[in-house]
Amino acid sequence: MRAPSRVAPRREAIPVSVSARTMAAVDETGQLSARERAAWDRFSTAITMLSEHLERRLQAAARMPHAHFAVLATLADAPERTLRMHELACAVRFSRSRLSHAVGRLAAAGWVRRTPCPSDKRGALATLTPVGADALWAATSARDAAVKHALFDALTAEQLDRLDEISEAVVAALNETCDVVHASDTALREPDTCASDGQLG
User: Fold this and answer.
1) How many C-alpha atoms does 160 have within 13 Å on its Cβ side?
2) Which residues of 39-60 are buried (b: 16+ CB within 10 A; e: fewer)?
3) Engineered SS bond to 127: which of 29, 75, 82, 193, CB 3.0-4.6 Å?
4) Could you tell me if 134 and 109 are in contact, meaning their C-beta atoms sit under 8 angstroms apart?
5) How far is Cα 106 from Cα 83, in angstroms, rounded to an integer?
6) What pTM did the predictor assign?
7) Measuring CA to CA, how many Å separate 112 from each of 71, 84, 187?
8) Taking a C-beta distance cutoff of 8 angstroms, is the pair 192, 84 a contact?
9) Is 147:155 a contact under the CB 8 Å cutoff?
């Protein structure tokens, strides 16, 4: 009995217009050189591995994802440990929905208190509670140990200086673009104009 012949999967033709736009974009932005591609691959792998390592350590030691750690740490540095939700979202670079979810979980744990803005019903304030400060302290110890072991112990003093310089250069290059993107996202949001001192701003 003859085996049924295999039919090659049909490939959809790529419209010429799409292909042309894609090639134009490549020509406009430039392609990575072999050296750039290799450096990017190593950098991307290192960041991914470090992030996963840090996430596991924080979960194991403090039952806290890194995203929640970022929210708590930002509030800890704020005046009176309080920020309006819009300011907090800007600081941690979260979307409105992601921040709302994170603050909701943190409030349920008693680590953050969310209160209405006294001068604007549309706004809300997030405040780090004493219990949240204790949780942050415990998580910071775990975070520091994980980062030191996975990153800084692998670098010489000279490499650490170069890492700092490279990070500063990348942040400076991205800041303007990120702020533009964030501003366009903010424009679509429900206004949240209550400053942490209760004044409009």
Assistant:
1) 9
2) eeeeeeeeeeeeeeebbebbee
3) 82
4) no
5) 15
6) 0.69
7) 9, 12, 26
8) yes
9) no
Question: Angle at CA 136, nearest 5°, toward 65 and 129?
Answer: 110
> Cα(159)–Cα(155) distance, rounded to whole angstroms?
6
**CA atoms of 161 and 79, how far apart (whole Å):** 31
Assess contact for 106 and 72: CB atoms under 8 A: yes
Helix runs in the chain, H state only: 16-29, 34-62, 66-76, 85-92, 96-108, 130-150, 157-187
C-alpha triplet 183, 93, 149: angle, nearest 5°? 155
Q: Using CA atoms, how far apart are residues 186 and 191, in angstroms rounded to an integer?
A: 8
pLDDT tens for the 201 residues of the chain, in order: 555 555 444 444 444 444 444 444 444 567 999 999 999 999 999 999 999 999 999 999 889 999 999 999 999 999 999 999 999 999 998 988 999 999 999 999 999 999 988 877 778 999 999 999 999 999 999 999 999 999 999 999 999 999 999 999 998 888 866 554 455 454 444 444 333 333 322
Query: How far apart are the C-alpha atoms of 176 and 174, rounded to whole Å?
Result: 6
Which has the closest alpha carbon to 139: 131, 88, 84, 152? 131
Residue bearing tokens 């959809």: 12
